[in-house]
Design a protein that fits this description.
single chain; 208 residues; mainly alpha; 9 helices; elongated
Length: 208
């Protein structure tokens, strides 16, 4: 009986693509920038591979698919945004000035959005909801966390006697969250920073 010749090398073929030793945080940061600039639907797998330096096999093997990478990018971006807000709200300032400066930060960011691509959180809301049910809990959790930090700053002001003590916490959170998210949307149109600062001033008056 004729036997097939044995392979000279029986070891498995190496996987095509970058080894799993790559830095996932760097990959997610690179993907986040692509999603931020192009939007989810306009982003191709090829553009993600080019930005991250990964081959398709490694990208799919790590994140499952393009949507899995979007979720990872969203969560990383959201954690950074929340951490920066928390840091601003922990500054050594009187309660009213502390909240005002935190809100003014969004006017400064919004003033640059017409030259950039907006906020990834806001972009995800407007592009992917209500259809994307798997991303929805990530977005809603992020918005609740942002709201809770703003509410805590107002409660601190209430305890110090500078804000109206009768204000409802949930209403405060919804109000301030709507304001800062709206500010990010308005940053894409031709509203001046002076006009946005006036919105913050009105918001602060509403807390008295």
């Amino acid at each position: 009986m004729t036997r097939s010749p044995a392979r000279a090398n029986s070891s498995p073929l190496p996987e095509r693509g970058r080894p799993r030793e790559f830095d996932i945080d760097n990959v997610v940061d690179a993907a986040s920038k692509v999603f931020w600039e192009q939007g989810y639907y306009a982003t191709s797998i090829d553009s993600l591979c080019k930005a991250t330096g990964l081959f398709r096999a490694s990208l799919y093997g790590t994140f499952g698919d393009k949507h899995g990478l979007l979720v990872a990018a969203f969560d990383r971006y959201a954690e950074g945004a929340i951490a920066r807000l928390k840091e601003r709200l922990e500054a050594d300032l009187p309660p009213a000035e502390l909240l005002r400066q935190a809100l003014l930060h969004y006017t400064h960011v919004a003033s640059k959005l017409s030259e950039r691509h907006g906020c990834l959180i806001t972009n995800a809301v407007t592009e992917l909801l209500p259809a994307d049910e798997s991303l929805r809990p990530h977005i809603e959790t992020t918005l609740r966390r942002i709201s809770s930090h703003l509410v805590a700053a107002v409660v601190k002001g209430q305890q110090a006697g500078v804000f109206n003590p009768d204000l409802d916490e949930q209403e405060i959170g919804n109000f301030l969250l709507c304001m800062i998210q709206g500010m990010r949307v308005l940053g894409k149109v031709s509203m001046s920073e002076k006009e946005r600062v006036a919105i913050v001033t009105m918001a602060m008056r509403a807390l008295n």
